From TrEMBL:
GO biological process: isoprenoid biosynthetic process; ubiquinone biosynthetic process
GO cellular component, as recorded: transferase complex
Protein name according to UniProt: Solanesyl-diphosphate synthase 1, mitochondrial-like isoform X2
InterPro entries with a match to the protein in the record: Isoprenoid_synthase_dom_sf (IPR008949), Polyprenyl_synt (IPR000092), Polyprenyl_synt_CS (IPR033749)
Coiled-coil residues: none
Cofactor: Mg(2+)
Signal peptide: 1-22
């Protein structure tokens, strides 16, 4: 039986706003919905965009609409792939695949866009054998991703997931663990059918890396808890390993060169890290309704994340508080006071912007093409990280935001900004 745990806290973008004006963050958004919604405000557009790959604002397409039919096909197949002999297991394993709970299927969207972005010859229809294999990778990755979320909720004893009841809350921990294990079994059974040992190795590496990341978090020492290098390594393992290795797997199946494979990998790597940094910010500035989890959940679990690490650089006295841990609520209050006086949130945003820019740069580094489908797919991947907003649209550059950050109730900050906007 697979060891339950945060195997792959992988997230992968979800919804992209097509409006250039500020909107109120919708309630009950999933993690990747929050990332893409926030990315509209948290980082600037890359200046290295290839002129051949650049589309005008009118030509820009919703990344999810671009391949929605194929993603719908993937969703239908996922429902059939999780059927088990025992009806209770079928119901539990398909809990997040049922109608109304499937979301936008960001993992398949990103991977199918990547497949189109690195393909040199495009053909339509699911009868295209290479495209069918790419869809299988998308299905496998989604099953691994969902399995990791289920195991994660069991470990954290979470009651909710993406604005709905968690599986363990609904069916109990034992059946939830078995459902997560069953999804992993189905995922790797499907991976073997691809008959490509390198792809199977990449997916296995992702699982290994992210289990390692979970163990890094469980066994962290006080010194490691205060190390930004340690945090970033753990973040890659836990959040970016699945999508980076899956993006590379897509390039491998497409028969691309090692250079293109590396670019696909780097896109996923930097995208995943940027997401986690945005999630770190939202843990302090969001609310439970918008996050799908309790605000300040990381710090209450004793997890030190990027904004606190940056604040510690400005206020070394914060280190002693961090090393003591956050079991004492007074330590949480002190840490938040230091954070409010620091540039921790802004520096985290800037680091997320840099990783998002590197992700877009990886797409710009792909071989030139005249195929409009390829160009649209590449632009869609970049839109998932930048989506039209320049630096002037970033909320952290607005003085009212800094005024709100100075207040003790950081959980209300985002709402103050939205009211101002």
């Amino acid at each position: 039986m697979m060891l339950p745990g945060r195997l792959l806290l992988a997230g992968l973008l979800r919804s992209a706003s097509t409006s250039s004006s500020a909107h109120r963050m919708p309630k009950n958004m999933g993690w990747w919905d929050r990332f893409t919604w926030s990315s509209c405000y948290f980082h600037s557009r890359s200046d290295s965009t290839s002129s051949k790959a650049r589309l005008t604002a009118k030509e820009q397409l919703d990344p999810f609409a671009l391949i929605k039919d194929e993603v719908s096909e993937v969703t239908d197949r996922l429902r059939s792939m999780v059927v088990a002999e025992v009806p209770e297991l079928t119901s539990a394993a398909g809990y997040f695949f049922r109608a109304g709970a499937e979301g936008k299927r960001t993992c398949p969207t990103v991977l199918l866009l990547m497949a189109s972005a690195v393909s040199m010859e495009m053909t339509d229809g699911l009868e295209n054998k290479p495209r069918a294999r790419h869809m299988h990778v998308a299905e496998i990755t989604e099953m691994i991703h969902i399995s990791s979320l289920i195991h994660d909720d069991v470990l954290d004893d979470a009651d909710t997931r993406c604005g709905m009841d968690s599986l363990n809350f609904t069916v109990g921990k034992k059946l939830a663990v078995l459902a997560g294990d069953f999804l992993l079994f189905r995922a790797f059974s499907a991976a073997v059918s691809l008959d490509n040992t390198e792809v199977v190795s990449l997916l296995a590496t992702a699982v290994n890396n992210l289990v390692t990341g979970e163990l890094m978090q469980m066994s962290i020492t006080p010194a490691q808890c205060c190390s930004m290098d340690y945090y970033l390594q753990k973040t890659y393992y836990k959040t970016a390993a699945l999508i980076s290795n899956s993006c590379k797997a897509i390039a491998v199946l497409t028969g691309q060169t090692t250079e293109v494979q590396a670019l696909a990998y780097q896109y996923g790597r930097h995208l995943g890290i940027a997401y986690q940094l945005i999630d770190d910010i939202l843990d302090f500035t969001g609310t439970s309704a918008s996050l799908g989890k309790a605000s300040l959940s990381d710090i209450h679990q004793g997890i030190v994340i990027a904004p606190i690490l940056f604040a510690m650089e400005e206020f070394p006295e914060l280190r002693e508080i961090v090393e003591q841990g956050f079991d004492d609520s007074s330590n949480v209050e002190m840490a938040l006071k230091y954070l409010s006086k620091s540039q921790g949130i802004e520096r985290t945003r800037l680091l997320a912007a840099e990783h998002a820019k590197l992700a877009a740069g990886a797409i710009d580094g792909l071989p030139e093409s005249q195929d409009q489908v390829i160009l649209n797919s590449r632009q869609a991947l970049k839109d998932l990280t930048q989506k039209r907003f320049g630096t002037r649209a970033l909320p952290f550059f607005f003085p009212p935001f800094f005024s709100a950050v100075k207040s003790s109730n950081l959980g209300e900050t985002v709402h103050l900004y939205l009211q101002i906007a």
